[in-house]
Amino acid sequence: MPVHRDEIERHFRSEYGRCVATLVRFFGDIDIAEEAVQDAFVVAVSRWPAAGVPPNPGAWITTTARNRAIDQLRREATRHGRHAQAALLYQRDDPPEPVGPLKDDRLRLIFTCCHPALARTAQVALTLRLLGGLETPQIARAFLVPETTMAQRIVRAKKKIKAAGIPYRVPGDAELPDRLGAVLAVIYLVFNEGHTASSGDSLIRLNLCDEAIRLARVLAELMPDEPEVLGLLALLLLTHSRTSARTAPGQPLVLLPDQDRSRWDRALIEEGQDLVRRCLRRNQPGLYQIQAAIAAVHSDAPTADQTDWRQILALYDQLVAFAPTPVVVLNRAVAVAEVNGPAAGLEAIEGLDLDSYYLFHAARADLLARLRRYKQAAQAYDAALALTANPAERDFLARRKQAVTGTPGPHPGKSAPSR
Amino acid sequence: MKQYLLSVHLIEGEPLPSDEETQQMFKDVGVVNDEMQAGGAWVFAGGLHPPATATVVRISDGEVVTTDGPFAETKEQLGGFWVIKAADLDEALAWAAKATTACRAPVEVRPFQDDAD
After folding, report:
1. Which residue of B has its CA nearest to A115?
2. How many domains are contained in chain B?
3. Omega of the bond leading into A95 within 30 degrees of 0 (cis)
4. Residue-wise pLDDT tens digits, A345-390
5. Do B90 and A163 touch (CB under 8 A)?
6. Mutate to test the interface with B, among A80, A166, A179 (most CBs of B within 10 A)
7. Pairwise CA distance, residues A218 & A212, whole Å
8. Residue B88 sits in a domain of what CATH number?
9. Which residues of B touch A163 (CB under 8 A)?
């Protein structure tokens, strides 16, 4: 059966992180590792169509890439007299390291990519490039930055890793919580970028949500004993399960209470809930686990009215204890309003320093509308509208405002005072 | 082993520490210096007089021109530095953490160019 280029690309894409990670350990250099995999791709394109896909494509790619890079470095060594490097290589080359079923080096690579000495934007770009196997132009398009900007960002980060001596290893126990936090934050940021875009003009953007979930799965596979890693994966799966219900014909953004729950992805929900239960058994709560638990409670409710808000409020209380940020307090207030009424919710967000955050005004407007303070509600919707440029969010807020000012428009479920 | 410059940044206009605090700071820095020497990381270190004592020498149209310093008219100035040896950035950052605690000022870590660069 002939092997198509598409299929070869798929194999390389899915093995990229693992192969590059192994080659970085072998050569101690990211650029050499990446070029070697690129060379192996050229070899695969010429051989696989006739010979077929090798039984273990990952091992084939790593071995081929490694041999090509060694040949290349030997040639360079004779040309430029880089004897030191060559000698080092010959030494490592003999005896050859096993490159079959590989010891997984991806974990080291993740920690190098997300090292705190690199800016967050660089961490994200490097992680998607080296572990996700994405091309630089794809990453640039996904983050809506010019290709040259993204290319420069990646080149600079790789230069810094080399020049500053950012190590290629999993941090020790003392540093691990902090360093793992950066890795989780990078994956979560990738997901959120995709999630926000999915309500807007998403077609030109790569599916960053899938990419983040893929990375979270790799991390969960490599660090199965870290509850926050499982918590993050659960949170992503549960959030992603609602993606197709977030839009409806003529409505670019549908929020949780108004979503058609039959469109939620049951398989993702089950997997996410299973992970949440595993986390609960460990009883070492953390930010991602609690947020995942909140998402799990939502996904348990067959209708919005059947949501167990008391449990959600209890989880938010726990979350506030971990991270008393204004945004968390704001989200908790939504649960407060459901349990104790909109007046209590409004009281809970009084004085929050979130004037420049559109969701603060949107939530406030919603609570005011439920208290039939329509004039103030309309003002708050205006404040929210002034703070977002996302067309889907603007459309949503405009509909809500229309509903409270009495002008024609669909009646939003949530602003009705009775639940 | 790589070499790193740990530079101590002082912000002009910040209130000066009391004599007592200054004495304690010198003591703390001394402890870090001893630790660096014992751990084999120490290469060289020193504290500098304030920027007002600086003089700048440069070539202008082929002539050597000497002017009152400092060179950069910024609020942040170099107050002192360490040059250390470390296996990698994490090791250097661990020393920097001790250094900034002892000298109570931000510390910038920069790698020296080596032969391979």
Report:
1. B90
2. 1
3. yes
4. 999 998 899 999 999 999 999 999 999 999 999 999 999 999 988 8
5. no
6. A166
7. 10
8. 3.30.70.1060
9. 111, 113, 117
